[in-house]
């Protein structure tokens, strides 16, 4: 009888322990969990991200003046508190009630090792329930991105779900493939800002059409699963999954920039949401798990 | 368990004026709150200004909580303490037409 492979046993044991934990069982992390943000425990280090400034707040790009994310109890005017999947609170990103407004929140890390990383979340999208009709086309888009820099390049690889535009339902996954505009900020020459939240420069993922459940009322929200796997060695998306759909073929390459000063090793994980109408759009995150293959 | 605390920026570099209010902030998890209003610069026209605290059951329909806070016409930080505010908080401006204040507003929550 042959002895068990020690590494296989360790992997199996790790998987079994994770499967036995209700908080982890619904995720499929890679080998090492870098963080697990369950917003029932608090904000877990997610914070507002804003455009760069120098000397005055007036120098922030107008469309990057994002406000803080909030712990949400999902309190609706008709049905009361909705809570989250396992508890009372989720993290909410809220746009302003202005068409095209964006909200973003980030957690800032550094690259431990080059290789695969995976960002997973259970999320929901809804607009502010100010009308007594299902408004499934209010949220223009939401998505996730990494902000990365290695020795030779900076990237902002971004996966976006274009939910609707101009009142028309779309439901298409996209990758940002074109360089956003760079703006010099201030007078020292040290500061710049990239308008990378603008709704331009995207390429559709082939076969990436997907409809999400919007339910039947503006206050009824369902939670969805999203997993995004990125390779920090090749700087390409390897796979992403939303609910029962897996995408891993012909994912477009994200745009690249020349390296910036002071950013080597940057690895930020960022979520964002956009509104298509003069109404607040919300992205709710029940929990987020970030893992690496290291 | 250590308490959760959170500083939410609810307005950044905005001009308070008649009809202005901060973006709604959810706070059901917190048991105490402070609103800070920081005036960034003296306005050109120094009309009186104040803000009133508002609460809401749903983040859509608002009612005055009863607390008001004068907002000076020079660089300054003013604050007010709150409790028993339910799930939502915001500030609304009491200003006459033509008045303005350039402000950063914070909601400091703990619970």
Secondary structure topology:
The complex is a heterodimer of chains A (294) and B (111).
Chain A (H helix, E strand, L loop, with lengths): L5 H15 L11 E7 L8 E2 L21 E3 L2 E2 L3 E2 L8 E5 L7 E9 L5 E12 L11 E11 L4 E2 L2 E8 L2 E9 L5 E4 L5 E4 L7 E8 L14 E8 L4 E7 L2 E3 L8 E2 L8 E10 L5 E12 L2
Antiparallel strand pairs in A: 1-21, 2-7, 3-6, 4-5, 6-21, 7-20, 8-16, 8-21, 9-10, 9-11, 9-20, 10-19, 11-12, 12-15, 13-14, 16-17, 17-18
Chain B lengths: L4 E12 L8 E2 L5 E10 L7 E7 L7 E8 L5 E7 L5 E8 L5 E10 L1
Antiparallel strand pairs in B: 1-8, 2-7, 3-6, 3-8, 4-5, 4-7
Explain briefly what this protein structure is.
The complex is a heterodimer of chains A (294) and B (111). Chain A has one helix and 21 strands.
Structural features, described:
With 294 residues, chain A is mainly beta. Chain A has one helix spanning 6-20, and strands at residues 32-38, 47-48, 70-72, 75-76, 80-81, 90-94, 102-110, 116-127, 139-149, 154-155, 158-165, 168-176, 182-185, 191-194, 202-209, 224-231, 236-242, 245-247, 256-257, 266-275, 281-292. Chain A has 1 helix and 21 strands. Chain B has 111 residues and is mainly β. Chain B has one domain: Jelly Rolls (Sandwich). Helix content of chain B is 0%, strand content 58%. Chain B has no helices and 8 strands. Classes of the chains: A mainly beta (294), B mainly beta (111). Chains A and B meet through strand 3 and strand 4 of A and strand 1 and strand 2 of B.
